[in-house]
Amino acid sequence: MSEIGHFIDGRKVAGQSGRRASIFNPATGAKTGEVALASKAEVDAVVARAQAAQPAWGATPPAKRAQVMFRFRDLLNRHIDELAPLLSAEHGKTLSDAKGEIARGIEVVEFVCGIPQLLKGEYSEQVATGVDSFAIRQPLGVVAGITPFNFPAMVPLWMYPVSIACGNAFILKPSERDPSVVMRIAELLHEAGLPPGVFSVVNGDKEAVDALLDHPGIDAVSFVGSTTIGQYIYSRGTAAGKRVQALCGAKNHMVIMPDADMDQAVDALMGAGYGSAGERCMAISVAVPVGEGTADRLIEKLEPRIRSLNVAPYTDSASDMGPVISREALERIKGYIAEGEAAGARLVVDGRDLRLQGYEDGYFLGGCLFDSVTTDMSIYRNEIFGPVVSVVRAEAYEDAVRMINEHEYGNGTAIFTRDGDTARDFFSRVRIGMVGVNVPIPVPVAYHSFGGWKRSLFGDHHIHGMEGVRFNTRLKTMTTRWPSGIREGAVFNFHAGS
Ligand code: NAD
C-alpha cells in the first residue's frame, strides 16, 4: 500500500489534513494506496514557500536555468523504464503508451533547454531622435497547474518545464487518481539541480484547487481537464485577477472522404479511437464517412478489427488497450451505450460483455462501435471518454464540415483524403484548434502549441511552444533617452591639432 503525501521544499512530506483519497489499480480493481488531500492551510504554506524561492530563481540567468533542464531531460530518459510501470499501474494504459506519453513530455523539456533564445527581447533603435525602445519578458511569479488523470506525466510536463524555465515558481496539483509518477519525476527534477521551493507538488481535491484559485500569491493557473471544471476554474481564477488557461473536453471528428485510402484510415481510427481506451482528449470519437459507399466500406473493415482488439492489463506486453480509469467511469460509459441504443443508433460491436479471467473486478470494457448515429443523440453531443466510436454518415463533404463547426467542442479533427484541394479547404474553414490531414491525432510537437477552440479552451493562450512562453511571462517595454552633455564636455581623446 503506497502512502502519498506532497512534495515540498525538495522532498516528500506527509499530509497533515487527515483527509485522504484511495488509489486503485484499474486492471484489478484493488486498492493500492492512499493520497493525502491538502487543506487550505497546507496550500497556503506551499504558496509561501514558492513565493520565497521565486525571486532568486527568477534572477538566475536563463542559461543557468537551462542547465537544470538539460540534466532533467537526461534523467527522464534514463528513468523512463522505471516511470512507465509506475504510471500504468495507476492509470491502466499499456506500457508502450506510458513510455510514449513520457517521451512526448520530454520533448517539452528539450524545447525549454533553449530558454535563453526563447526569452530574447526586441529592440528598436531611434524610435525618435535619440530615443530607443526595447521589450523583454519577465516571469509572472508563482504559477499553479491543475492536471487530469489521463496523461499523469505528459500533461504536467506541458506546463512546469516551460513555467520554471521562464523563471517562475510552480505548484502542481495533479489528479488524485494517479499521482505516483509525478512524485517520482519531482525527485528527478531536484536531482537535476532545481533549488528547493521552485517546484512543489500538492495533492488534493476541490479544497486544494479552490485554495490555489483564491490565493493572492498565485499569479496564473494552467488547467487541463473536463469542460465543466475548466469553466469553473477559469471563472473563479480570473475573478481573483489571475491569468488562466483552461484546456478542456473534446469530441473529435475524423472525416473519411470517398477517395481516402481506406486501409490507412481504418488503421488510424483503431489507434485514435481505442488507444488508451479512448481516454485521450485527442481521441477520435466520431467517424464521418462521406457517402453511403464510404460508410459501408468503413464499417466492413472496422468491425473485425474492433472484435480482435487485445484488451488486457499493462503487464501483458501484447495488450492493445487496458481498462478505463475507475468503476464510475465504466458505469458512465455503459450508461452512454444504453442511451445510444435507446435513441436508435445501431450498436455494431458491443464491448460490454468482455470478461477477462483473473481480472473480473478490473474496469475493462471492449471496443464499441455505433453506426447510424445522428447529431441529436447524447452519444454524439457528449464526450464519452471511453472506447466508443460513433459513425455519423454524411451525404456530402459540406455536411461533414457543418457538423464539426456546429459542435460545441473544438479540440482536434482529421480528414482522410488524397485530394489536396479538399484538405486545404478543410483546414481553412474548420473551427477547430488542431487539424490533421491523413494524421488522426494531430498533437503539435513541443515547439508548436497545443490547444483547442470553442468550449475546449477557456483563455487566450494555447499550451507549450511560444504560446507557453507568453503565458508564463509578462511583457515589459522600456523607452530610453540619454541626456547629452558628458560626452561633449569631457575630454576623452586627443583634439585635432593638439
Ligand atoms: P477533471 O476535470 O475531473 O479533473 C481535472 C482536475 O481538476 C483534477 O486535478 C481534479 O482533481 C480537479 N477537479 C475535479 N473536480 C474539481 C472540482 N469540483 N473543483 C476543483 N477542482 C476539481 O478531469 P479528468 O477526469 O481528470 O480528465 C479527463 C478530462 O480532461 C476529459 O474531459 C479530457 O478531454 C480532458 N483533457 C483535456 C485535455 C486538453 O488538452 N484539452 C488534455 C487531457 C485531458
From TrEMBL:
Gene3D superfamilies on file: Aldehyde Dehydrogenase, Chain A, domain 1 (3.40.605.10), Aldehyde Dehydrogenase, Chain A, domain 2 (3.40.309.10)
Coiled-coil features, chain-numbered ranges: none
Pfam families documented for this protein: Aldedh (PF00171)
Protein name listed in UniProt: methylmalonate-semialdehyde dehydrogenase (CoA acylating)
Keywords for the protein's UniProt record, in alphabetical order: NAD, Oxidoreductase
Superkingdom field: Bacteria
Class of enzymatic activity (EC top level): oxidoreductase
Domain Aldehyde dehydrogenase: 15-477
GO molecular function terms attached to this record: oxidoreductase activity
Known EC number: 1.2.1.27
Organism: Paracoccus mangrovi
Xref: NCBIfam families: MMSDH (TIGR01722)
